[in-house]
Amino acid sequence: MLELAAKSTQNLLSECQETIGYRFHRPELLKSALTHASRADSRLASNERLEFLGDAILGLIVCERIYHLFPDSLEGEMTKIKSVVVSRRTCATVSRQLHLEKFILMGKGMRDNLPLNVLADVFESLVAAVYLDGGLDAAQTFVLKYMGPEIDQVAECAHAGNYKSVLQQLAQRELGSTPIYQLLDEKGPDHSKCFKIAAAIGGRCYPGAWGRNKKEAEQKAALNAISVINGEEPPYPSD
């Protein structure tokens, strides 16, 4: 029975390597990256430590990409672009595209309703495993192979301040719906009004934002929605 289980795991690791297009010199790193805490003998034997490292490596690779894409951008603007480009939802999306859920070693019953954070963790763990196995160049090649086009597209929109376009892509891909914008409030004299607008997706209304005109308020509202969807605090106050 143990021999059969070992053979099954070996086949799974082999199929995973074919799927992701990277062959490990140390397959035990791949196994660690795919091992959820619910299946590990202890949390130290799970992919949690690799996830921690992978998060930092992924951030480095994306930050370098943004640094070279936008040589005239200041730190604050690049930070905002990064927050739009890299999120746990993005990592989970790439995991789904690679069908990594088939390869995760986890406890019984979890696969039927797999949480988003598990999918995100396994991708970040995989980034760390590739880094430890093949170095930074290998990790960069791996990340940009699967995230590069999306990073470039989303970063260009974010750089241009077109958060409505970014939100539309995110909402259609992740939530299967198109954002609409609702006017919540307005104040000031007719010649100098301010507007409070919120983005709504699939019946959920996200935190609103004030702008000096409707266009500005919509862009700020879109960034607020993006931030909440990505599990972050909205940057613009709704009060």
Please render the helix and strand layout as text.
Blueprint: H1 2-20, H2 27-34, H3 48-69, H4 75-85, H5 88-97, H6 116-134, H7 136-159, H8 163-175, E1 180-187, E2 194-201, E3 204-205, E4 209-211, H9 214-229
Antiparallel strand pairs: 1-2, 2-3, 2-4
What does this structure look like?
With 239 residues, this protein is α+β, with helices and mostly antiparallel strands. It has 2 domains: 2-159, Ribonuclease III domain (Ribonuclease iii, N-terminal Endonuclease Domain, Chain A, Orthogonal Bundle), CATH 1.10.1520; 163-229, 2-Layer Sandwich (Double Stranded RNA Binding Domain). It has 9 helices and 4 strands; from the N terminus they run ααααααααββββα. It has helices at 2-20, 27-34, 48-69, 75-85, 88-97, 116-134, 136-159, 163-175, 214-229; strands at 180-187, 194-201, 204-205, 209-211. Strands 1, 2, 3 and 4 form a 4-stranded antiparallel beta sheet that branches. A hairpin with a 6-residue loop joins strand 1 and strand 2. Helix 3 packs across helix 7 and helix 6 (116-134) packs across helix 7 (136-159). The chain is elongated and about 70 Å long. The termini are far apart.
